[in-house]
Amino acid sequence: MDIRFVKREQLKEKPDQKNLGFGKYMTDYMFVMDWTKEDGWIDARIVPHEPISLDPACVTLHYAQETFEGMKAYRTKSGKIQLFRPEMNARRMIKSNERLCMPAFPEDMFVEAVKELVKVEKDWVPSEPGTSLYIRPFMFATESALGVHMASKYKFMVICCPVGAYYAEGINPVKILVEDELVRAVQGGTGFTKCGGNYAGSILGQVKAEKMGCTQVLWLDGVHRKYVEEVGTMNIMFKIGGEIYTAPIEGTVLPGVTRDSIIHILKDWGYKVNETHLAVDDLMKAGHDGTLEEAFGTGTAAVISPVGEFVYKDDIVKVNNFEIGKLTQKLYDYLTGIQWGDVEDKYGWTVDINA
Amino acid sequence: MDIRFVKREQLKEKPDQKNLGFGKYMTDYMFVMDWTKEDGWIDARIVPHEPISLDPACVTLHYAQETFEGMKAYRTKSGKIQLFRPEMNARRMIKSNERLCMPAFPEDMFVEAVKELVKVEKDWVPSEPGTSLYIRPFMFATESALGVHMASKYKFMVICCPVGAYYAEGINPVKILVEDELVRAVQGGTGFTKCGGNYAGSILGQVKAEKMGCTQVLWLDGVHRKYVEEVGTMNIMFKIGGEIYTAPIEGTVLPGVTRDSIIHILKDWGYKVNETHLAVDDLMKAGHDGTLEEAFGTGTAAVISPVGEFVYKDDIVKVNNFEIGKLTQKLYDYLTGIQWGDVEDKYGWTVDINA
What we know:
- Chains A, B: It catalyses: L-leucine + 2-oxoglutarate = 4-methyl-2-oxopentanoate + L-glutamate; L-valine + 2-oxoglutarate = 3-methyl-2-oxobutanoate + L-glutamate; L-isoleucine + 2-oxoglutarate = (S)-3-methyl-2-oxopentanoate + L-glutamate.
- Two copies of one chain form a homodimer.
- The first copy, chain A, is α+β, with helices and mostly antiparallel strands.
- Chain A contains seven helices and 19 strands.
- In chain A, the strands form two sheets. In chain A, strands 1, 2, 3, 5, 6, 7, 8, 9 and 19 form a nine-stranded mixed sheet that branches. A six-stranded mixed barrel of chain A has the order 10-11-12-13-16-17, surrounded by four helices.
- Strand 4 of chain A pairs antiparallel with strand 4 (52-54) of chain B, so a sheet runs across the interface.
């Protein structure tokens, strides 16, 4: 892939690495490529991060034909910069696009675009413990037309921002509201994709959870309102009676890259991982009878997010005395160890941006 | 509401009224207003229809916090320009926004914005039979931030385009595929709103229907995959054994303005209207035993769209010998008569833009 480069006049000042937050500072450049029905993917370019111009009738502003991915670049102690399983994000975006009737952005081009952009932005990859460069590939329809249809023009873009340590003051377990009215996804819908509509529809659940003094919402399945699916924008896993339980990938749950990695590791560590439908009643029962040992969300942003409490209707269960569980901590240390290059990557998951 | 006006240097040439199509020609101006957490709705303005500038990190391009409405302005034979139940669109957008955690755009401001824009664009309201000015109010988040959250900045806009007669060569019944895999909406989700995500998720069903030689897709409910909900982007009604059946407004089906108007008229005409769950098996059975007399979609674009055939798995039923039914035709003539001012509006549904 030939990538055209447009230099920016003046580079931005880099922010204080101890105060990065999430998504507050966009880097200097972005990767852009256009798709048309006639020409396919054309004009790969790395250009200054600047506003884009869209006609008010642009399909994306009305019918949300848009998908995205989220991934990170990590700086190791030796100064090397590495990605984590970027091909998984590329493949998932292809699946998302299929469901949304959007053209595929090929896997090899996806990984190359990300690598080349991160190379250009290497000075933006922070080195403070726990920090990383968040990478956001996304794609959306650019055609202007008011009929609901498969658009004939798209843009694939990658933007980046340095992000702080997710747990600035150590990992804190969170309180979770089990949502029994609002639904995130249903079989036959778009739940397994990273499409904009899934996220717009989820905000109300999050707001409701916060009003109830909870940090996140735990979604139940849309058909029976019974089986545990995802928490907020993460997958969720439970350790019950020594075994691991998590929702299966059957069309409603996002096939998380962290989820997949954690399952691999757990199996290697000898755990039985049940990718199965866990009823919320059984979860609460396990919480009360003491067999629910640990619970944690998995996702790119936090990697592992321990759950300290579940609130479901009038029932509340505490998990592991509202402390991070041993296995949760061990998984967090091991996986972030691989990502930041402190632990040997025996799975071959990390990819040097210069390789 | 004070509306600032920015004149455009040169007006566009008006297109041939006999060849308008749908959404091909945008008018000269658009209405715009901004919302911020601090100031609420500010800076109402009618400005030239021009591209808008968005940061690539704009929430709408990633999480689809966006809603829209669709309505029309009609030119009567006497030259008067009128809207059809604009307050219904205003109220529905408020409901959509509530679900998407977006601020309400007040009903009176909504109607005023539409009226004032149409007044400015009065020469764009076509006069050929069956033509109208399509009006698209829409709202979307403009904040730039990559965290999933309720945005702090929004834009409300109204754009317009003259549209041709929906049935250039008379009303033709269409062939409909009953979709039994893909799902449009489920209780607890966003089905009752006009949010972008609903439409992005529906395109695949439409593509599938077209591949099967059908014009539209008929969606079943997401829980049982059994009850008839909507067809394409319209509500749907059935005349079975002399009575009318249509899906109830319970969270999954769009509360259509045309749907509501048709139900009013039907009741006035003495029909029993059952807003109830009709199983697709019962629909097909009624098709085979001859009690299914008529079927039609209702929506702003086509007003009434007669169904000539349903295809469900291996089963096919023809409706009224693939001809438009008597009641369907009568409803179409009566409602479009009111809209274009040829029939007395005893319901007070039409609103003169100068009133």
